[in-house]
Amino acid sequence: MSTRIPPSSLLTRRRLLAVGTAAVVVGTAAACGQGDPSGGGDTGGDAESAGGSAGGSGDLRAVTVGAIPIVDVAPLHLAKEQGFFEEAGLDVTIESTSGGAISFPGVSSGQFDFAFGNVVSMMVARSQGIGLKFFCSGSTTTGEPGEDNVALIAAPDSGFESIRDLAGKTLSSNQLANIGDTACRQVMDKAGGDGGSLEFMEMAFPDVQAALENGQLDAGVVVEPFVTPALEAGMVAVSWPYAEANPELDTGGYFASEDTLENDPDLVRSFREALVRGLEYAQQNPDEVRRITGTYTQTPPEVLEKMKLPRFRPEFNLKAQEELAETARTYGTVTGELSVPDMFAEL
């Protein structure tokens, strides 16, 4: 484990804001359909509505987890509902967040014991010397173009058939200098093009289809629950950026502060053990993923029924993370020193 960073120096206010700005919602963000760039819907939701209680229960240890209300965190909710956390001796409260702008500083300050976040946001945080680490993966691309939960779409009459056709064009990502645009640049490079030729503008996932129809941009990154409706409306998928970047790309995971990992490892192990059971349960029961997602988001039932789901597994694929980090360095998303292996805790 790397040298412990004293809690008092974990984050200055400026660095907190910088990480928050860089933190994009991964995977199927915007499942609540509120139209904000993070797609998180209500922020800071009360504990009971998020599936938890404010205090401990009996001899159970109270634990608070920050999680944006998207399908990627369904295993977390399932682990709570199925009693996996309780069996591990934990009384887990899940607090809704709007994404990394809340979750990263929340864990650093002790507001949350743990939180869910995307991998590029962690790369940015670590490169700035912020003492956070992943201890469990949370969502992974399916690795199958056409069957993934993230797509780069264009208008039906655009004539774009592959990402190579988009050189010099304007694309959208829900937040700039993060996982969406980084993955697209990586795919362009892998296709023999120049990832730097792609121009990006920031646009919320729910707004992309209308912007394409109005000619405001050439292509845009969307996630479920916006992928399936867009394709049914005639939009075309020019690329499936996460699946094409690397079929083993893990896009988000659960993290803790270095202080917690060093001084309370038993808590992290207990939580991870129960969470892994939730991930395995989710992977084996996709209908349960759809059902429980409807309990903490405002996704319509007809969309829940059709939307594509990510994979759920506990271990990160280091090679895929190294490749993504190299692209992030190449295009200036990560500017500080970054050791990818040090992003992940050894328990």
Could you explain the architecture of this structure?
Residues 1-31 form the signal peptide. This is ABC transporter substrate-binding protein. Residues 34-55 are annotated as: Disordered. InterPro entries: SsuA/THI5 (IPR015168), TAT_signal (IPR006311). It is found in: Periplasm. With 347 residues, the protein is α/β, with parallel strands linked by helices. The protein contains 14 helices and ten strands. The protein has helices at 13-22, 74-81, 84-87, 100-109, 119-127, 179-190, 208-213, 227-232, 241-245, 258-263, 265-284, 286-296, 301-306, 318-330, and strands at 61-67, 90-96, 114-118, 132-140, 150-154, 170-173, 199-202, 219-223, 236-239, 250-257. The strands form two sheets. It has a five-stranded mixed beta sheet, with helices on both faces. Strands 7-6-8-5-9 form a five-stranded mixed beta sheet. Strand 6, helix 6 and strand 7 form a beta-alpha-beta unit. Helix 6 packs across helix 14 (318-330). It is globular. It starts with 12 loop residues before the first helix and ends in a 17-residue tail after the last helix. Residues 1-56 have low confidence and may be disordered.
